[in-house]
UniProtKB/TrEMBL annotation:
It comes from the Bacteria. This is Cytochrome c family protein. SUPFAM superfamilies: Cytochrome c. Residues 96-196 form the Cytochrome c domain. It comes from Sphingomonas cavernae.
Length: 216
């Protein structure tokens, strides 16, 4: 009788209440397997995974999704990506504005002077820097990193350096993060080029792609 109550009672209760066991865990966060736009994520990499929980959401999605069902990047999207790169330096320089560049150069003024014969500060005087040999301003004590850097300051080299001094010449001691926008750098270079560097050749604008890129 006791056994009947123990097992039979359980069986009876199941029939009466109709227990159903879910096949997915109930604690799973709701949006874990929501579709993630993988193409957009790839385009903005690595900036796309910054919000808290983004990594979990992506991992959850990739675990839940049938991989065969992930749509391949659309043909149009694939074509749009190479059409997007910023204009080359020559193109930017052709329409660059030295007056705007002069105001960009305000951020350099705590460390550099720009006038002919101007004093060295934390950094060397920059009159005529376009075209001059790297680390060649007499009287300034350059770091070994930049002192052994070969070549001269072409527009292209300066553009690379000013985009990220630390990356362009690792170990140099210009404590400056860099100027991110290509247009700002082009304006700045146009200004620097107007300071006793008139003869230095500018890179030629690259030819427009033959078909259909169209403006920007
Ligand atoms: C915090 C100070 C600081 C700021 C701000 C700064 N620089 Fe410099 N810069 C230096 C120092 C220091 C050096 C020398 C680096 C070395 O010796 O490694 C240098 C070197 C340079 C050189 C190489 C010069 C040569 O003779 O080879 C250029 C070009 C230059 N800076 C341009 C700029 C421009 C343009 C800006 C503003 C957008 C700027 N710098 C902002 C400190 C600074």
């Amino acid at each position: 009788m006791a056994l009947f109550v123990a097992f039979g009672g359980g069986w009876m209760a199941d029939r009466l209440v109709g227990v159903s066991y879910p096949d997915a865990p109930a604690y799973k966060p709701a949006d874990l397997d929501q579709p993630v736009d993988l193409a957009a994520l790839q385009r903005s990499w690595p900036a796309g995974l910054t919000a808290p929980g983004d990594h979990n959401r992506l991992a959850g999605y990739l675990r839940a999704v049938d991989r065969g069902a992930i749509p391949p990047p659309a043909a149009g999207a694939a074509a749009a990506v190479p059409a997007a790169p910023p204009p080359d330096l020559g193109t930017l320089l052709a329409s660059a504005d030295p007056a705007r560049g002069k105001s960009v150069a305000g951020v350099c003024a705590s460390c550099h002077t720009f006038d002919q014969g101007g004093a060295d500060r934390t950094g060397p005087n920059l009159w005529g820097v376009v075209g001059r040999d790297v680390a060649s301003h007499s009287g300034f004590a350059y770091s070994p990193a930049i002192g052994t850097h070969p070549g001269n300051w072409t527009y292209e080299e300066l553009d690379r350096y000013l985009a990220s001094p630390a990356r362009a010449i690792p170990g140099n001691k210009m404590a400056f993060a860099g100027i991110r926008r290509p247009q700002d750098r082009a304006n700045l270079l146009a200004y620097l080029g107007s300071l006793g560097s008139a003869g230095v050749p500018k890179p030629a604008p690259k030819a427009e792609p033959a078909a259909g890129a169209g403006g920007d």
